[in-house]
Amino acid sequence: MGSISVFPCVYLMFLLACISEVAFGKMVFNVMKDGATADGNTDNSEVFQNVFNKACQSEGRNVVLIPRGTYMLAPIVLKGPCKGQVEFHIIGTLKALIDETSTIDINHWITFQYVDRLVLSGGGKLDGQGPSAWDDNTCSKNPNCKALPISLRFDFVTNSRITQLTSLNSKNAHVNVFACKDMKFDHIHIIAPKDSPNTDGIHIGSSSNIQILDSTIATGDDCVSMSPGSKNINIRNVTCGPGHGISVGSLGGGPNEEDVSGLTVTNCTFIGTQNGLRVKTWARSYASNVFNLTFEDIIMDNVNNPIIIDQQYCPSRNCEKGESQVQIRDVKYGNIRGTSSSKIAVAFDCSKGKPCEKIELNNINLTYYGAEGAVASSCSNVKGIANGQQQPGSCI
Q1: Which spans are transmembrane here (predicted)?
Q2: Would residue 89 show up in a list of annotated catalytic residues for this protein?
Q3: CB–CB of 225/256 below 8 Å?
Q4: H-helix or E-strand containing 7?
Q5: Per residue in 306-330, pLDDT tens?
Q6: Among 35, 82, 234, 258, which residue's beta carbon has the most beta carbons within 10 A?
Q7: What's the CA gap between 215 and 235, in Å, rounded?
């Protein structure tokens, strides 16, 4: 009897071991089994690199599992291409190192490159430990300032999804998307204090077919920003604030910049932000184009510049004044409502040399309750039409 009773126990242990390695048709690579230490002090970057390499070189569907606990992580580059699909399932918390070697003149914390069908998920947190580095951000005063790490970089990543994650207190921007295609960000939370420098939520450049859905972004800079080469970007059901709003630009800073086109922002809410919907180009710029932008069903709650096109952008003493050569056209604003914290709720300051064209305002209802008088709009070098309710009265 004794030998018979042992067999089911041994079989059960074997079965559980198999389940831990293969779950629902996926091969699971648990970082703890490769020596990761979740004590909040030990650098796990070498372990994470090794586990990613194993998953990346395996065919089929592969999961890098990061269980509960706190894992310190030095700057790391996880590079494909991979033989199969890789999912990073982050349940625990990843923490960035704060020493100078891991911070100053380093442009990344966690980078994914040349990966197709990547998934980041799990409900975990990425803590960039930004307060340790924000005093080192001198870029507002020094054009030759040294880089600080962006928490998550995606370079040449395709057909991928980032979901159910929280990014806290990045040292620089939280997420940077470069030369990527067909990426979806949904149900993510991006959080940093309103006075934290350059902590953009998601920055996009030279990328197409990017979706940002059902998320909350509260930072010290732009919630979402789009630089040259951003095409077919869809932002829906995002709450932004604090921060600088959703921005296209700055554009025109260099020769032969790629155009920006196909941006759609819908069903979004801005709370106490510096700007709402902003397009900005350098005051003296090179030539490029911005077109086919749509902003619809937007709520503004105490936003300083709810609707703004600024072609005289010059945030420091070092930039040159002059006429912007960026052509802005085919921009639609529909059903924008709420409150402005400044008297000028709609401001179009376009270039004299390249006036804004085909700007369309449909049903704008923005109020201002401050001491400067009735809410107003301001227009310079802009052509377009206004339909339906217009508060403030349209100056187009």
Answers
A1: none
A2: no
A3: no
A4: helix 2-21
A5: 999 999 998 876 777 789 999 999 9
A6: 82
A7: 10
